[in-house]
């Protein structure tokens, strides 16, 4: 599609020439939101909508949150460190440190816990019916697994799997 720029790691950025609109309700960050308001009085902030809260999407959101109006759309309310998953099945404290809410690192942006079901030239439509406009769209969906939607349920899933397993240092 014209305007799309593929990047490494399967991330695609699409730009829209349409100005952004508040489109979603998000916490008051000391700015008016929408086109031209920007944070800190900067009238040049663009809305960047990132679909996917895995490694690529989360890292990008965290990296640009003070340089753009960032909206992260992810099916889950949390980020989990994938390489800690195996150890999390045998050590509960690891699970609690390896899984954290998107809002823990995205302090200057908006998190929408939903799936993106459609994309137009100017907006992303979520499963719960929200229309989120963008100046730049990043698709960073990676691969999918069957994971619980909320952090508490994911930690419970690890607890359930731990019962028959004993960490080596406790043997």
Automatic annotation (TrEMBL):
**Record GO terms (molecular function):** electron-transferring-flavoprotein dehydrogenase activity; flavin adenine dinucleotide binding
List each copy of the FAD/NAD(P)-binding domain by range. Answer: 47-151
Keywords of the record, alphabetical order, are: FAD, Flavoprotein, Oxidoreductase
SUPFAM superfamilies attached here? FAD/NAD(P)-binding domain
Top-level taxon of the source organism: Eukaryota
Membrane-spanning parts: none
Any one Gene Ontology cellular component term annotated for this protein: cytoplasm
Per its UniProt record, what InterPro entries does this chain match? FAD/NAD-bd_sf, FAD/NAD-binding_dom
For the region Disordered, give the residue spans: 15-39
State the similarity comment: Belongs to the FAD-dependent oxidoreductase family.
Supply the name of the protein. Answer: FAD/NAD(P)-binding domain-containing protein
């Amino acid at each position: 599609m014209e305007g799309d720029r593929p990047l490494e790691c399967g991330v695609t950025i699409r730009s829209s020439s349409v100005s952004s609109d508040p489109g979603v309700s998000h916490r008051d960050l000391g700015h008016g939101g929408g086109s031209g308001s920007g944070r800190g009085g900067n009238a040049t902030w663009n809305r960047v909508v990132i679909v996917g809260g895995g490694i690529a999407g989360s890292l990008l959101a965290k990296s640009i949150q003070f340089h753009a109006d960032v909206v992260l759309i992810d099916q889950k309310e949390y980020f989990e460190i994938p390489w800690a998953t195996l150890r999390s099945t045998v050590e509960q404290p690891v699970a609690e440190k390896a899984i954290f809410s998107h809002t823990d690192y995205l302090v200057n942006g908006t998190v929408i816990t939903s799936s993106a079901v459609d994309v137009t030239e100017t907006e992303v439509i979520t499963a719960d019916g929200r229309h989120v406009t963008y100046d730049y769209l990043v698709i960073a969906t990676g691969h999918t697994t069957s994971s619980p939607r909320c952090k508490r349920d994911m930690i419970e899933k690890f607890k359930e799997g731990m019962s028959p397993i004993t960490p080596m240092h406790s043997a």
